[in-house]
Write a structure and sequence with these properties.
The complex is a heterodimer of chains A (125) and B (21). Chain A is of the alpha+beta class and 125 residues long. Helices cover 53% and strands 14% of the residues of chain A.
Amino acid sequence: DSCIQFTRHASDVLLNLNRLRSRDILTDVTILVNRQQFRAHKTVLMACSGLFYTIFTDSHKCNLNAISLDPKVDPEGFAILLEFMYTSRLTLKESLIMSIMNTAIYLQMDHVVDTCHRFIKSSDP
Amino acid sequence: YEGVNTIKERGRSIHEIPRQD
């Protein structure tokens, strides 16, 4: 028996999900961060973040079409993490590293938190 | 998949949704 493994299938699917997001197709939730709004797919959010997984597996909350995050969350940090969820690329700017890491802690994205820790350690003189 | 001959296909796996129609 043989099996064909398409090695770039996961990234091709993610690319298409990101195109759907950028065109606002089948996005089903608005994330409010301070006054900024981000449209996204619940399934992608919950696949990447422990916080969103908890929210959307709760039968009382899974049908919400808008979620407000803690006002302490920095929209710029959230935007970078949302971009990461849809592209697998995490932009770590030194000026934003603390807000990215704190947002990742809040969103329960443990692997990203570890990566931020390593980035901070490696840039420490 | 143990014992199955796995062939790697490195080309695109699905159509690409355009940025805009």
